[in-house]
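Researcher: I'd like a candidate sequence for this fold, 264 residues long. If you have to choose between options at a position, lean toward the conservative one.
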């Protein structure tokens, strides 16, 4: 069909150019002027319609509702158990949750920024949904998960399919790692029991290794690792507690070492 149409148009062009050159030239000039006029008319009306839609309060209200509707995921046991928005999160948030993820899309880049908020409650400041993006991204992040004395590796991406977790103040701990393993690799592990090594090649090609006892804090220009050096998990008797209190020590205390890496 298209080939026949093209052939007919080409044949018409040859005939008109050969036998009616003056009339054909005038016809082409007319088509050009008409095309410019039609394009200008459509452009002006399109801009007018855009301004009317943009200034329409009903449309703006609908857009705001679409932006804020159900863009908060409530995570528990590696699963998203509910979708809420900023207006309803305080009233409808389940009492038991591991953390929430607030998502905000960037239409121009097709990127969705993911803000991880731990221990969200009614007392959480309202500006917790305000965020700044990190000025860096890791080259590689690989998890080596211990399964029956074997170490199985999985790619774990903090920027995956447009989802961007490189947001300042995001805290990447064993609960977030377990959630991402489930979402990206369909691997279900208990964050309270799993053992893993997280190998990172950062933006400066530094090689970093973390375990399930470490917490990775993402800041705007650098990242920070809090390493648990010593941890006492065993329960003590009442007499031992009294001895510890008398000696000024505390059972179950943790020592931390802070390691910072500047983006220089």
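Model: Candidate sequence:
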């Amino acid at each position: 069909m298209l080939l026949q149409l093209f052939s007919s148009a080409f044949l018409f062009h040859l005939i008109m150019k050969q036998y009616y050159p003056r009339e054909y030239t005038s016809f082409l000039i007319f088509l050009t002027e008409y095309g410019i006029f039609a394009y200008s008319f459509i452009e002006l009306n399109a801009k007018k319609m855009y301004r009317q839609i943009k200034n329409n309060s009903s449309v703006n209200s609908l857009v705001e509702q679409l932006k804020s509707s159900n863009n908060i995921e409530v995570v528990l046991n590696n699963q998203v158990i509910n979708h809420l928005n900023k207006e309803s999160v305080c009233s409808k948030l389940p009492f038991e949750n591991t953390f929430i993820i607030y998502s905000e899309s960037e239409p121009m880049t097709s990127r969705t920024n993911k803000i991880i908020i731990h221990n969200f409650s009614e007392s959480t400041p309202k500006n917790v949904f305000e965020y700044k993006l990190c000025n860096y991204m890791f080259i590689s992040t690989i998890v080596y998960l211990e399964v029956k004395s074997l170490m199985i590796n999985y790619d774990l991406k903090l920027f995956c399919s447009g989802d961007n977790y490189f947001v300042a103040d995001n805290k990447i701990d064993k609960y977030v790692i377990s959630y991402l393993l489930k979402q990206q690799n369909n691997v279900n592990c208990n964050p309270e029991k799993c053992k893993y090594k997280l190998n990172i090649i950062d933006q400066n090609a530094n090689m970093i290794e973390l375990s399930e006892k470490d917490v990775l804090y993402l800041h705007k220009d650098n990242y920070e690792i809090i390493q648990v050096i010593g941890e006492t998990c065993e329960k003590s008797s009442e007499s031992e507690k009294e001895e510890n209190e008398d000696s000024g020590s505390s059972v179950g205390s943790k020592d931390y070492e802070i390691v910072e890496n500047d983006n220089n």
